[in-house]
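subagent[fold] <- orchestrator: predict structure for attached chain, return tokens only, no commentary.
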Amino acid sequence: MSLSQLARTIRESATLKLNETAALLREKGEPVIHLGGGEPKSKTPIDAVINCSAVLNTGEIRYTPPDGIPALKKAIVRYTEEHYQKLVSAKNVIASGGAKQALMVLLHVILDPKEEVIFPAPYWVSYPEMIKLAGGIPVPITAEDGTFCPSFDEIVAAVGSYTKAIILNSPNNPSGAMYSRDFIREMVEFCEKKSLYLIMDDIYNRLVFDAKTAPICYEFTKAPIEESKLVVINGVSKSYAMTGFRIGWAIGNKQLVAAMATIQSQQTSGPASPSQWAAVGALNGVQSCVESLRVTLENNRNVMMDRLRAFTGVKVTKPDGTFYCFPDFSAYMKNSQELSRFLLDKVRVVTVPGKEFGFEGHLRLSYCGTIRDITEGLDRIKWALDPNSANELFLGERKLVREWL
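subagent[fold] -> orchestrator:
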């Protein structure tokens, strides 16, 4: 079969592939523990379910405007005012089939072939491939000191004549690190000065721990929104645990949003109507579900940190937010892909190799599952890496492990 050069060079999503692998193993009756997922286990907010059911019950499920139904755009405008202290209009908003599509459409709008997009490492696995799909060149930047947060100077040093945009994801997937307020301020001011697009991937910005809050990028901008190249990406997938509804959005200047709507109209004709009404319900409904999820995740993070600190040789940085941590397992195995496969084969625990995020030797572990998944999963990992370790909680599982072997 003859495939395009682009099709031959784009890699599949590592995280989605692992989800598929875990599902297939579970279907076979394997006792798999999934510590690689990025999907909260909370139920869909009842207001979202009611709104979605109401439109389904009418039987009138039709096309919608390509940039989103007016009710959803109005809800996003209100959300932006409440959580970002920024007044925008409906013409500054585009709703998409997930935050991922909003970012993909944005990249198609702003990039010409061979233009560069800079982003800090570790980074979300999809950034490099999405940039390449839009004809651009991904430029990841790794901090020289080995931390998860490159400095402002390190980012600026990578900017050249082909640089078109910078992406910041804070709190960060996979590390859970949150960039400092000073760093966000410097990046906003620098991008305005150099007329670069600054794309804020804020999908986790309400899932922050230890009484911290995510910096608000609009606080530092001096340009009116219609002259600004600052774009905020967000959605309902993470904070509202609505991954399957596939609704995200972008906030930007009117000209940019109009161009995005044109491209989106040719891609998908706009998001699905029931999903949009579900998102309206979530954004306008009772918001206690977000805080409940945040508190649960903070507790789960603390449990995972306590377990990981008991590992000999494993280095781990406490996440500021999200539902991931990114420990360094290189003391056991430097090749993260081999390590991830070893853990899956040996003890049926799913993890995501750090190489996919631009950091070799690390594994992304998710704590958005149950406490039992976290404790049993880490106990299995500890036993696999050090079979002689004293691990009373895992003794009951060793018979299963021997059977796999």
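orchestrator: received. Logging for downstream: The first strand starts at residue 33 and ends at 34. The longest helix spans residues 288-308.
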